[in-house]
Amino acid sequence: xxxxxxVLEITxxxxxxxxxxxxxxxxRLDIFGVLILAVVTAIGGGIIRDVVIGNxxxxxxxxxxxxxxxxxxxxxxxxxxxxxxxxxxxxxxFDAVGLGAFTATSANLAIQHHLDSLFIVTAVATxxxxxxxxxxxxxxKEIPYVFRQEVYAINAIIGAAVFxxxxxxxxxxLPLYLSFVVTTVLRLCCIKYKWNFPVLGMDSKQVVSGEHKxx
Length: 215
Prior knowledge:
The chain is an all-alpha fold. Helix content is 76%, strand content 0%. The protein is built from nine helices and no strands. Helix 1 (2-26) crosses helix 4.
C-alpha cells in the first residue's frame, strides 16, 4: 500500500509543480522565479496544512523528498515547456490524481492528529488541495483560478467528507482509497463535461448607466 500511495502522491507533486512552472514561464519569470513558483504550487498547500493542524515544523522541512521532486519537475519543464503546452489534458489528468491523493492523505492526517470533526477534516483537505494553486496565482498577480468558475475546491470537500463518513463502515486503508477515487473521478468529470460555477457580474454598460443614474 505504501508504495502505491507514494506513487500517487509523487504524481500529484509532479503535476502541481509542472502547473506552477508553466505559469511562471507564461508570466515571463526568470529561472529562479519558475523554480520557486513550481515549489510553491506543489508543496505550499501541504505547508499551510501542517501549520494549521500543528504538525510543525512542516513535513516538507523534515523530509526534502517532495521539494527535490518539485525542483526536478521544474527543471524538466524548462527544457520541454513548448512540448508540454500541447498536452494540457494530460497535465489536467495528473492534476486530478494529485488532488485526489492530497485530499485523502490530508483528511487522514487530520484524523491522526485527533482533529475528528467533519468541518476540520474537510477544511484541512481543501487547504492542501487548493492552497498551492492560490499562492501560485497570487504571486503572479492573477485572481486565483479556483475563484474563477472552476469547480475545484468542491471536489476536495466531497472527497474529504467521503473519507470522514466511510471510516464508520470501512476498515484499514479502504476509506483512504475511496476518498481518492471519488475526488479524482469528480475532478475528471468536471474537466470532461466542463462543470463550472456561474460567474456573477454586471455588464460594463449597465455599470456606467447605473453610475450616471446615481449622479
